[in-house]
């Protein structure tokens, strides 16, 4: 996903490892800034999505290659901004006057996850409860933790030294990839660096930040025998740099090298705003996120959220249901289990309400008898 | 043998910390951890190496640490070593008066009261212009006089302690008394005293600053100049302060540049330094921007060192971590020390000076790896002597953070201490003996006590 970006050596502070992403040349016809709006809810067709949304991003583009000045990049002081008027947003992504789009970072992706098979069962199998059939998956709720609540994250962002030409960052917590953030222009990144504090993270990341107060040192020594001149030493430093880039790529393999399901949210001139969702395989790292892809296929904007294990499992179970036409027997057959086992698995993951009470009771009784 | 080595390292460690640490917040650490760390060091050295502790007042450490040492020595008078009192008195006399009075006031805060302290306070007061100090440092002098039962000369007692009095005979006291009532009389007073009274009389700030200007000291002018209200006389500021001022300007003028070079010449005249072929690696990464309390201090120190080295060496080249257009450096970007160090070594210097906070992140450990391999593989005989000057104290290391083993790291708070720092660097490598160190301290203490009144360290 990050093919044209260069990974620079990481900077470590406490449990956090921040890997800068650099781009030698960048576009000037697409800019990203911070909107002054904030809100607590979004009106969606037929539903209201409620969350505290401290910031929105504004995307600005040009159809020709004429440079665009960013709207929000002048706002350097995000942290000091005091109470912003809270309101209700009209839609997740909304076009504003001119070639400008306001969208809610990560909420866009999160909405995609929450709306996964929102409609509930498509086939009225006998074991689904009345509630499941009449109301579907509503309301689906997921919890996450704000960036400023992560132990030491603000300090890590404060002491981070931004590179010249840096357009993004990979954030690792205890060497697990927490989020990836890419902007179209280095100035945009500089302005939005602090806004990472306002994003949200899975509770796994929050736990990691508390559990691992510091990272083990991770250095790559040069080969002592081969150094005879200053030129050798220079080459060794270059090698060290490459090894760091390789390390960054290896550590973020769970995001970069897995197939994702993407959905286009908005077409901003030649640019596509998409949201994507990972494989949802419970044994893998799973990231959801959104990105903006330029016509040449390069990534201009990226923000991801790492699902916690429980979140992944829940999404995976739903996906299983949908893939099997909401038929438990078919799922059981595939995994060589009994229907009762499958049913109890759903119940354990918080989907007990999908089924009639007597069906779950019978499954439990069967299970007790067997053991 | 190990005991000897431990002792030597303890002492070097302590002196090094005393050059850099001011107990204030640093870029990577907060003020509290700094305090805890430096407090521990002081207590440790006081108990274990008292003679070194007292003599360290003489080696050009910063005022914050001088003040700490004086307080601790005064609090534990029983174990005093010979000449300790003289060292304390001399140190107090060389400190800026507000610092000295603050130290003496802290004597009261800490509840120290013994005969030696009283004698030292009495002697300090005798060496000063009592009337002026009573006016300018009124609260501090009052607290000190009260605590130590000072006998105050002339009308000072009445001025400090009595509320309503008739006319004073002493001219300065009389001026203050008149200024309590008249707005015009305010302008005859020292700036800081007048400032409070001007507020009382509600004199507009601009009008006040214009009229009080002749009464302001150089430092006061520099301080006020930051808000752009007063023009300063650039000719008399010490180099580091001037450089920090220049960094705070949106644009650098010819005049300021000229003042910087004049200040460099003055500095070298008072503490001569002559070097051969020198290269410098100077860190202007983002962390050099310092903190709110020490704004741009590391960057300022690097720039000032650059200026001094340029003037003091036969051949000089500077390598900034982020080369900048124009003359003024800016703190921006990540720290890559390996490339500038390699570039500097390419020029085959006799002396390589590195000014950096020793946090390297592009790639991490790059700078120290380069230095290590250079010393062990490419230059085992040590033709190039390398000195690392660190303007930042690291609380967790109890010292300025080191860059690489075998490269001496010396704390440096301002360019004025550069000659001292370069002299001290040979101790920091660990090749000298404790006896050498002792004789160095002895010599400096002798000089310190002998110089008496001349050449005070400017702050």
Task: Give a structural overview.
The complex is a heterodimer of chains A (371) and B (459). Chain A is α+β, with helices and mostly antiparallel strands and 371 residues long. Chain A has helices at 107-114, 130-135, 153-159, 186-192, 203-211, 230-251, 253-256, 309-323, 328-335, 339-351, 357-370, and strands spanning 6-7, 11-13, 16-22, 30-35, 38-44, 47-53, 56-61, 86-90, 93-96, 100-103, 145-146, 166-173, 176-182, 200-201, 261-268, 271-277, 287-293, 299-306. Chain A has two domains: 6-310, no CATH class; 327-370, no CATH class. In chain A, strands 1, 2, 3, 12, 13, 15, 16, 17 and 18 form a nine-stranded antiparallel sheet that branches. In chain A, strands 4-7-10-9 form a four-stranded antiparallel sheet. By secondary structure, chain B is of the alpha/beta class. The longest helix of chain B has 19 residues, at 2-20. The radius of gyration of chain B is 24 Å and the shape is globular. The relative contact order of chain B is 0.12.
Sheet/helix structural class of chain B: alpha/beta
How many helices of chain B?
Answer: 21
DSSP strand tally of chain B: 7
Oligomer: heterodimer
Please state the average pLDDT score of chain B.
Answer: 87
Instruction: Note the gap between the termini of chain B.
Output: 40 Å
Protein name (chain B): TROVE domain-containing protein
Protein name (chain A): ARG and Rhodanese-Phosphatase-superfamily-associated domain-containing protein
Domain ARG and Rhodanese-Phosphatase-superfamily-associated (chain A): 2-269
Organism (chain A): Frigoriglobus tundricola
